[in-house]
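Extended Data, panel c. Modelled sequence:
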Amino acid sequence: MPAALPSDADTPRKTPAATDSPDDGEHLRAGIQSVEVGFELLNALSHAPGALMLRDLAAAAGMSAAKAHRYLVSFQRMGLVMQDPVSTRYDLGPAALRLGLASLSRIDAVKLARERVPALLLETGHTLAIAVWGNQGPTMVHWAEAPQTVPVTLRLGDVMPLLTSATGRCFAAFMGTEGRDAERIAPMIRDELTRLKKLPHNAMPLLDVPQTQQAVQAMLNETRHHGLARVVHSLVPGVGGFCAPVYDAQGRLALGLVVLGSVATLDTQWDGAPAKALLRCARQLSADLGHQPLA
C-alpha cells in the first residue's frame, strides 16, 4: 500500500475571495504551510553530521515520525532525500546536491558583501572596506567612507601589509594555517619582518607592530582567539581598525570585511560595538556562502 502524501490539513485553506492572482499580495504572503513544515526535515539533514534514523530526523524537525515519513516519501520521489536500504537511515539525495551546487556556482562573494555594506555602515558609522587575496596579497576591492571619517590614503587595488594592517593580519591568521597558503604566507611574513627591522627607529613611531617571529605568532594566536584581526596605530598613526574573515562553503577564506576609523571615535576594544557588528555580519555572510563552522 503506497504511503500517503502530506495531507491537505497541512496547507492553508482558501477563503471564497482568495485567488491565485499574482496581484493578491495577502495570498502570496500566506504561502504554503506544508512546504515550510517539510523543509524542516531537509534543514535538519543539512545540519546533521550524517544520515539519520526516522525517529531522530523527526525529532530534529520537531514532528512525529508518522508525519515525517509522509514528507520523506515525497522527498524520495523528488530525489531530495534518499534512504539506505540496509540501515534505513535517511540522507540528502542527488536533487539536493544539484540544487546546492547550482546555488554555489551563482554566488558572488564580493557582490554579496557589497550588498551588506550600507546597513553595516549605518550601524558602525565608520569607513568599511572589502579585501580579497590577490596575486601579491590582501587587496582592497571595495571602499565605502562614512560621512565623517578620518582621511586614509588607501585606494582600490592597494595590497595591504600582513603585519601592520588589520586586513593583512586577518588573512595571515585565517588563511595561512596549513598547506599551500601557509607556504605562500610564511615567506611574506619573514620578508616583512626584515623590512620593518631595517627602518630607522625614529621612522617607525607606531605601536602594536611585532618585531620577531615569536611576537608575530602571539599576534596571530590572539587574532584567532577573537575571531577577527585588529590594529591600533599600526598602519597609520591615530587610526584603528578590525578585519573579520568571511568563509566559503569549503571553509576557505573568501574575503575580509574591514572597519576602520580614528581611535578618537572608533571603539577599538575587542568586545566593542564595531567589532561585534563586523563579526556578526561576517558570520552571516559566511553562512550565506554555505559555510558551516565546526562545532
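Residues 20 and 289 are 33 Å apart (CA to CA). This feature is highlighted in the accompanying rendering.
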